[in-house]
């Protein structure tokens, strides 16, 4: 019988986290699901653990593939999924036992194509809890897209959401790139007639020092700006009324990356090379970004310096660092 939900779990060399993840899925109060574990060429014992769980529960299917990366593993899972709904959990994270019950009921009760919850972070084995008042927000397509780029309720991560299968028709994750959620989530939201959000926290994001986005800045992270080129082109064509929001979101992303580069990249040659790449992407959208009412003067100043003079930008950032140190003393 076809399950209601397909839960896709990509796995690569996460043996110390994997059991907790899979145990949390199998303990769900909502039981009508399949788990598709895609072992992405692990070289540790992760593959054996996956097979162990397939023997333990007939809702678990395991696919062993070569190491094609996170996007490839998710695409394999999507292709094999049979559920009416699709969810994603990274194999080093875990979920509270009522997460899928909550998300599934929200979709059904509000006739929504996507339901979203919030998450807590786990750092060094401790969950960082945040007090929140109960809150549910129902949104049409445009409002859901606006909130995606506004970023206060939810962001691009695919794993704290439940989607009707139709949202992924003709949509795949970009293989060979990182920041895969950035490249994908807006396309999925574009296919949703209605979206519902709850500030119930069901997903636990485990912060690992060795994850791709917590290691020192490298050239691969500039993939994000290829994604932003696609996003802005798509949004200009289909959601131009939201320009204030997606261009501001892009500007925040630019400035964040500038700070990562100046604080994490040691070689001056590499710093200027990476900043020059971002400068080229900013050039195409500068005149619209600088007019944005959503951006404060600090961000506009950094964007302006980046566009016109990288050396002056670096001088300004270093000067601010010196001032901040003196004020802290």
Automatic annotation (TrEMBL):
It comes from the Bacteria. One of its GO terms (molecular function) is glycosyltransferase activity. CDD domains: Glyco_tranf_GTA_type (cd00761). Residues 6-170 form the Glycosyltransferase 2-like domain. Keywords: Glycosyltransferase, Transferase. Belongs to the glycosyltransferase 2 family. This is Glycosyltransferase.
């Amino acid at each position: 019988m076809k399950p209601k939900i397909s839960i896709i779990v990509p796995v690569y060399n996460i043996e110390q986290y994997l059991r907790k993840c899979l145990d949390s899925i199998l303990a769900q109060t909502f039981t009508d699901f399949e788990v598709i574990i895609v072992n992405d060429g692990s070289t540790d014992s992760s593959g054996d653990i996956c097979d162990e769980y397939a023997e333990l529960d007939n809702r678990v299917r395991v696919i062993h593939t070569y190491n094609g990366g996170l996007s490839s593993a998710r695409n394999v899972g999507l292709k094999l999924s049979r559920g009416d709904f699709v969810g994603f959990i990274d194999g080093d994270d875990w979920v509270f036992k009522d997460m899928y019950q909550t998300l599934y009921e929200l979709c059904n009760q509000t006739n929504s194509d996507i339901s979203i919850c919030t998450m807590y972070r786990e750092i060094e084995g401790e969950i960082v809890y945040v007090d929140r008042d109960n809150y549910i927000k129902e949104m049409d397509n445009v409002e859901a897209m606006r909130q995606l780029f506004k970023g206060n309720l939810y962001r691009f991560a695919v794993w704290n959401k439940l989607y009707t299968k139709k949202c992924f028709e003709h949509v795949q994750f970009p293989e060979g790139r990182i920041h895969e959620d950035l490249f994908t989530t807006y396309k999925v939201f574009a296919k949703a007639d209605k979206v519902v959000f709850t500030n119930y926290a069901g997903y636990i994001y485990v912060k690992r020092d060795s994850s791709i986005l917590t290691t020192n800045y490298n050239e691969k992270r500039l993939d994000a700006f290829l994604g932003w080129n696609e996003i802005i082109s798509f949004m200009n064509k289909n959601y131009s009324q939201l320009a204030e929001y997606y261009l501001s979101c892009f500007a925040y992303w630019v400035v964040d990356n500038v700070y990562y580069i100046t604080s994490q990249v040691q070689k001056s040659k590499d710093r200027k090379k990476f900043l020059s790449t971002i400068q080229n992407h900013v050039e195409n959208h500068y005149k619209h970004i600088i007019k944005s009412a959503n951006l404060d003067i600090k961000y506009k100043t950094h964007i302006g310096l980046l566009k016109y003079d990288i050396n002056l930008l670096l001088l300004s950032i270093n000067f601010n660092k010196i001032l901040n140190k003196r004020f802290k003393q």
